[in-house]
Amino acid sequence: MIRMPMQRPMRARGLSLAELLVAMALGLATALIAGRLLLLATRAQAAQAEAAALDDGERYATELLGRAVRQAGYVDPALLAAPDAGALFEAAPATVAGYDARSLSRTSNALDDPLPDQVNGSDVLALRFPGAGALPGGDGSMVGCAGVAVAQGEEGWSIFYVARNAEGEAELRCKYRGGANWSADALVSGVDGFQVLYGLDTDSPPDGTVNRYVNAAAIRALDATLPPALPSDKFNRLTHWKRVVSVRVGLLLHASRPTRADRSPSVYRLLGPAAADPGDIGSVLDEAAFAPEQRRRERRLFSMSFALGRPVPASVPTAQAPGALP
């Protein structure tokens, strides 16, 4: 009888110290890589969300600004058809006005009592327009920046300026006249700068074409050369604000949180290289002057030009138009 040799049972063996260290190192490297990928994905998602928010803010601001400028160029057809259309047109106040490096109070009357600049030399742009449609609410075709419709025979306002909210965040606001008083609503937050230039028609007689762009301070300086103590109707006829046929706007927005890696600071020319006037505060903004946390925020610069397209009554005497600018 052949006896089979008895097999000894296999004894379980653990990892050696070297194998354990290698396994831990590989596991740690895998966890670090996965964490890094998750961080990059989260940062990319946050950056995409902030970029989309900036684009949405720009589209909303562009739509409101463009509509307000076009409405400022609107003239009631009844006025154009009136026998004394020229006199009425000349006696009416200018539909465009503004300030350089100023802000406004929420409740003050229109442009009264301007406040000192609050955000990087940001400007004030004021546009007035006539209503359309029967009272009390009109037909909805003439609407202010706050969405309030204006009826025929009434005067609407859309005033854009920059101020800080209770948290210190700068926002582009819309000031308007309500049923009983003035108020203002925030349109877009995260504003670094809001700049405005006005395209003047300097030809005599005017031909509706922009000859040069100037800021509000330059127009106010030109109006300061008019004879003093003019009656309102004569001042309205001569004011250089009535020479404005186009409005150019520069708006620099930043995201609500820092999402980009450190990089060299950028320089933003809000109204383009040719329009950057060293004497125009806020027309050029350098990120190097911002706080470190602010420099890590995504930014978008939007520059837009809008034509008023105002029809001038044929009966307006060109000889009485404002004089040619220097």
Structure description:
The chain is of the alpha+beta class. It has helices at 17-72, 77-81, 85-91, 216-223, 232-238, 292-295; strands spanning 96-99, 102-103, 115-116, 124-130, 155-164, 170-177, 182-189, 191-200, 212-214, 244-258, 267-269, 284-286, 297-307. The chain has one domain (43-320). The protein is 27% helix and 26% strand. The chain has a five-stranded antiparallel beta sheet with strand order 1-4-5-6-7, covered by helices on one side. A four-stranded antiparallel beta sheet has the order 9-8-10-13. It starts with 16 loop residues before the first helix and ends in a 19-residue tail after the last strand. Residues 313-326 have low confidence and may be disordered.
Quick summary:
The chain is α+β, with helices and mostly antiparallel strands. 27% of the residues lie in helices and 26% in strands. The radius of gyration is 31 Å and the shape is elongated.
Number of domains: 1
Beta strand % = 25-35%
Low-confidence stretches: 313-326
The largest sheet, given as strand count, sense and whether it forms a barrel, is: 5 strands, antiparallel
* Strand arrangement across the biggest beta sheet: 1-4-5-6-7
Average pLDDT number: 83
- The end-to-end span amounts to 129 Å
Order of H and E elements: HHHEEEEEEEEEHHEEEHE
As a percent range, the share of helical residues equals 25-40%
- Global structural class: alpha+beta
